[in-house]
Amino acid sequence: MWLALDTSGATSNVAVGTAEKAVAELSVRRKRTHSEQIVPHIEAVLRLAGLDRVDLTGIAVTSGPGSFTGLRIGLATAKAMAFALQIPLVGVNTMHALMYNYKNAAGPLLSLLDAQKGNVYYSLGRWTDGRLELAIDSRIAPLNEVIAAVKDQTEDVICLGEAAELFAAELKAAGLRLAPPYQQAVRAAALLDCASAEWAQRGSDDVFTLVPQYLRKSEAEVLWEKRRKIK
């Protein structure tokens, strides 16, 4: 049994199971930090599944892009558990995991996450013969540029991710479709499936070298660089 963790956004998502079936899954969106709730959520899911930590055979975790703090917490938790239990660890791109919410959809899928200040992280892909093919992978741009880049698609584009909810009015005005609210966050059960494909293709990640994929500098880094230039 594998454990899947996602703390890349506002929702805490945890599941235990296999690529074919999640035995237990928990998705919670509350005004509490991931550092407060991720471990209790893991324990709750294991308890619901009738499992203990020693029963786990691997761990999947979203490695970015997403919330800087959320990614650090999720990765630190996953890496610590994988190291302690001596089991494989697979970091999964958040944008790819979102598209596994709509596995085998007929048309193009647009993953969108908030990158602050009117910008979004985005990927554009589609399912072909059970395989995810990416036309645009993990970029950052202003929302209006993303809309301009995809609105001429000949098929309906389905928008996924928390930024799809945040910018729903703009996306609908551009003629893009929104996934249902329950599909807007990464599903930990879908993450299990995505991680299984990654595991089969490239094996596990190193717990010491796996790092968050931020795609941009943090506000603290930007401010620090500005101060250095002033000096």
Automatic annotation (TrEMBL):
<dbReference type="InterPro" id="IPR000905">
    <property type="entry name" value="Gcp-like_dom"/>
</dbReference>
<feature type="domain" description="Gcp-like">
    <location>
        <begin position="31"/>
        <end position="173"/>
    </location>
</feature>
<dbReference type="Pfam" id="PF00814">
    <property type="entry name" value="TsaD"/>
</dbReference>
<dbReference type="GO" id="GO:0002949">
    <property type="term" value="P:tRNA threonylcarbamoyladenosine modification"/>
</dbReference>
<dbReference type="InterPro" id="IPR022496">
    <property type="entry name" value="T6A_TsaB"/>
</dbReference>
<dbReference type="InterPro" id="IPR043129">
    <property type="entry name" value="ATPase_NBD"/>
</dbReference>
<dbReference type="GO" id="GO:0005829">
    <property type="term" value="C:cytosol"/>
</dbReference>
<protein>
    <submittedName>
        <fullName>tRNA threonylcarbamoyladenosine biosynthesis protein TsaB</fullName>
    </submittedName>
</protein>
